[in-house]
Amino acid sequence: MRLCVLASGSKGNCTYVESSEGALLLDAGLNRTEIVHRLAVAQLDPARIRGVLFTHEHDDHCSAIPVLHRYLDAELFANGGTAEAIDCAHPDAALPWTIFETGRPFDLAGFHIETFSVSHDTAEPVGYVLCADGVRLFYATDLGCITPAVAAAMTGCTAAVLESNHDPVLLMESKRTRHLKNRILGDTGHLSNEQAAAFMEQNAPDTLRLLLLAHVSQECNVPSLAKSVMRDALHRAGRDDIRVEVLSQESPSEVFTLATN
Ligand SMILES: [Zn+2]
Ligand SMILES: [Zn+2]
Q1: Ligand nearest to the backbone CA of 56
Q2: How far does the centroid of ligand 2 lie from the alpha carbon of residue 45, in Å?
Q3: How far is the CA of 43 from the centre of ligand 1 (A)?
Q4: Are 19 and 256 in contact (CB under 8 A)?
Q5: 98 CA to centre of ligand 2 in angstroms
Q6: Closest by CA position to 97, among listed 86, 108, 111, 107
Q7: Using alpha carbons only, what angle is made at residue 5 by residues 211 and 165, rounded to the nearest 5 degrees?
Q8: DSSP string, 24-65
Q9: Among candidates 52, 9, 4, which has minimal Cα distance to 28?
Q10: How many whole angstroms from 124 Cα to the centroid of ligand 2?
Q11: Could you tell me the residue ranges of all domains in the chain?
C-alpha cells in the first residue's frame, strides 16, 4: 500500500491511498486545481483513483467535490447522513453517491474498507480503516474525544493518520471567540496534542510502525510541539520504534510505502 497525504488542516484535507489494484482519495477539501497539482508534485496518477470516500460534510473535507467528480472517473462514497449534508450544501451538483452503512465493511479498488463512528459536530462523521496487501491503515482526523469504537479501530494497524489538532494553552491564548474555543475543546470538536498522545500511549498496537499527526492547527499548535508530545508519550510506552511525522497544510507528504512487518 502507498499513502500520500496531499493536505491536512482546517483549510483543506485530502489523502491519496493506493493498493496494487487501484487508488482512493479520502476527503476532497482542496480545490480541484490544487488536488491535481499536488498529485503531480507527488508523482501520483489521478487516473488510478477509483473512489473518493468522505469522512464528514465540513467544507475543509469536501469543498472540491462538485468540480472534482466531473474530472475524476471515480465513485463517491459516504454514509447517508454525510451524503445528505453535502447535497444540502451543493444542491445543484447532483452528486452520484454510493451510500455505505457505518460499521458495515465493503471492498473497493483492492481495499477492504471498515468504517467507524467518531465524535464530531456533523451529521454522521466516520473514520476509516483501509486494508490492502496485508496492511491496515487507520484514518481519523476530526474527533473531539476517543470512543471505544476509535480504540477498537486502531487494533492491528500498521500505520495511522490521527488528529493532533491543538495545544490547549495556545488555543486559549488565540484570538478565537470563546464559542469557537469551547467548540474545539468539546467532545465533538478536535483532539488536542495531549489527548492524541494519551490515546497512543495506551493503545498503540504492537504492529504500528508509522504515525502521522493530522489536522494540526496553524494558529493553535506548533508541529515540533505536537511531535514532541507524541514522542514523549510513545517513549513512556516503550515505543520509540514508531516513526512519527507531522502532516502539512501547505504541501503533500512524502509517498509512504506501507508493507507488512
Ligand atoms: Zn476538518
Ligand atoms: Zn470537521
Answers
A1: 2
A2: 27
A3: 25
A4: no
A5: 21
A6: 86
A7: 60
A8: EEE---S-HHHHHHHHHHTT--GGGEEEEE-S---HHHHTTH
A9: 52
A10: 11
A11: 2-257
Q: Which CATH superfamily is domain 2-257 in?
A: Ribonuclease Z/Hydroxyacylglutathione hydrolase-like (3.60.15.10)
Question: What is the distance between the alpha carbons of residues 123 and 28, in angstroms, rounded to a whole number?
Answer: 18
Using DSSP, state whether 242 is helix, strand or coil: coil
Query: In a structure prediction context, what are the per-residue pLDDT tens digits for the chain, which is 261 residues long?
Result: 999 999 999 999 999 999 999 999 999 999 999 999 999 999 999 999 999 999 999 999 999 999 999 899 899 999 999 999 999 999 989 999 999 999 999 999 999 999 999 999 999 999 999 999 999 999 999 999 999 999 999 999 999 999 999 999 999 999 999 999 999 999 999 999 999 999 999 999 999 999 999 999 999 999 999 999 999 999 999 999 999 999 999 999 999 999 986
Cβ–Cβ < 8 Å for 203, 191: no
- Catalogue the E-assigned strands of 54-176: 75-79, 97-100, 106-108, 111-117, 126-132, 135-140, 159-163
CB contact at 8 A, 116 and 103: yes
Q: How far is the centre of ligand 2, averaged over its atoms, from the C-alpha of 58 (Å)?
A: 5
193 touches 221 (CB < 8 A): yes
Q: How far, in Å, from the CA of 62 to the mean position of ligand 1?
A: 10
- Residue pointed to by grid coordinates 492547527: 217
Ligand in closest contact with the CA of 165: 1
